[in-house]
Structures are given as C-alpha cells and as structure tokens.
Amino acid sequence: MPEKKITLEVVTLEKxxxxxxGVDIVVFRRFEKENEIGSEVAILPGHAPLLARLSITxxxxxxxxxxxxxxxxxxxxxxxxxxxxxxxxxAERVEAVDLELAKAAEKRAKEWLEEVAGRGKFDxxxxxxxxxxxxxxxYRETH
Length: 143
Description:
The protein is α+β, with helices and mostly antiparallel strands. It has two domains: 6-94, F0F1 ATP synthase delta/epsilon subunit, N-terminal (ATP Synthase, domain 1, Sandwich); 99-142. The protein is 27% helix and 44% strand. It is built from two helices and eight strands. The protein has helices spanning 99-117, 124-142, and strands at residues 6-11, 16-23, 25-30, 39-43, 50-63, 66-80, 83-87, 91-94. Strands 1, 2, 3, 4, 5, 6, 7 and 8 form an eight-stranded mixed beta sheet that branches.
C-alpha cells in the first residue's frame, strides 16, 4: 500500500501560487478573535475535513525532509481527502530564510506583543498593516 501524502495548493484571485504534491505536513496559524496571533495547526495525511479562516501568517510545509515557507495574507484553508487548499488575497514564497534575521523578527514580535498585552483596546487594522510591512521588509532583506 503506497504511503499517503498531502497535496498543497495556494491560490489567489490572479493565479495559483503553489501546487505541491507529496507533502508530509502543512503548518499554519488559524484566525481567532480571542487570540491575536491565532493558534498553530498542523495537518498530516489523513486529517479530518476542516474549513478555517487564516491569519496573516507564514505557512510551512515539509516534503522529503526539507521545509519550505510561503507567506499568506489571510484567507481560508480547506482540508479534504489529503488536499490542503488555501485561498488568499496575496501570497509569496520565501525561498531563503536568514536564521539571524528570523530570530530578530521573532524578538521584535514578542516585544510588540508584550507592549500591547496591557492595553485595553487592540487595533487589529493597525496591527495587520504593521505585520504586512514587516513581512514585506523580511522578504526584501532575504532576497
């Protein structure tokens, strides 16, 4: 019996950004009103059907022992029959990850979360705009 794998597809209104077969695992953050960054979800072959809203998030997937990254600007993910389909307004592949740059970005994100944790009102639109800008800067610096 052949080993089960996942097919991952990422689609925007303009085009298909990614269609990858033979994927071992897909990991993303789903959108949650109660938690600004959302919870991380890992999809393995045989996962039950699921429809979820995505945060602005990096999506990582592994195939043949190698991990790949793609950043999506929110949207929806649908899982069914070992097919993970992401529909998003925009997405970009991240070909190379600078570990030091990624650690610095993570540190800034943690500091920002600590700063806003005590505030009574959270401005989601401003946070999304800042995150999009940071992701674009990260992408420019790694390419």
